Amino acid sequence: MPAIGRVQPRFGLVTYMWGAGLELPALIALLERTGLEGVELRTTHRHGVEPALNQAQRAEVRARFADSPVTLVGLGSNERFDSLSPTEVGKAVAATTRFLQLSKDVGASGVKVKPDALHVKEGVAVEATLDQIGACLRALGPIARDLGQELRLEAHGQCAPTARLAHILEAADHPAVRLCWNCNAPDLAEPGLAKNFARLRPWFGDTLHTRRLDTDDYPVRDLIELCKSSHYDGWVLLEQGGQVPSDLDATLRDQNERFASLVGDE
Predict the structure, then answer these.
(1) Is the pTM of this model over 0.85?
(2) Which CATH number do you get for residue 88?
């Protein structure tokens, strides 16, 4: 949970896709060099922090971060709960449970999941899918709570519009189930960024994903101002797809400096 007395967010990286190809020691070294304070490790990438790790390997991951100023903020799973197959939904719930245990064991504070798709073409009402996702999150909430973890629902896919996310979170109705803002196009739809942000702000957890801070296709400065004015003091994590910059060190330093300027603005 956010530290008492800290009134500004901190800056880190999601390893999609920047950092995806780095083994864990190299990734931590990159973040130390560039000044980023935290990281969310996405599943399937080369750093290999996965539920298959044994206890000794989990302890090694935890120790690497304990010896570094970089915080392991969370794990980015790819689990989702919208499938038409009850068997597949059950597998996703079981896999998320394993990720939550892994997150606790390696010293992180939460696991990211996705809503994700709708199945209107298959004859399933939108509300039915949203309720199904919410029910899965509600079932996982006590597990996350008992492990001292946040279950972080990333605004994603066809469920990204504000009203749909609110429906899911109301259905989940558990304090360990939180929202991870994700800088999607629906954020800017009517009634606009500020009102969409305000509607979802009560569910924010300790992570928010942002595009690169010098982008022209999302009002990042306005988003940071909303974070500041609403006293968000969690993590703002850079999640950037596409080609990895040829000089990733220089790019991350630049992004870190931009973030410091944004949060320092009065």
Answers:
(1) yes
(2) 3.20.20.150
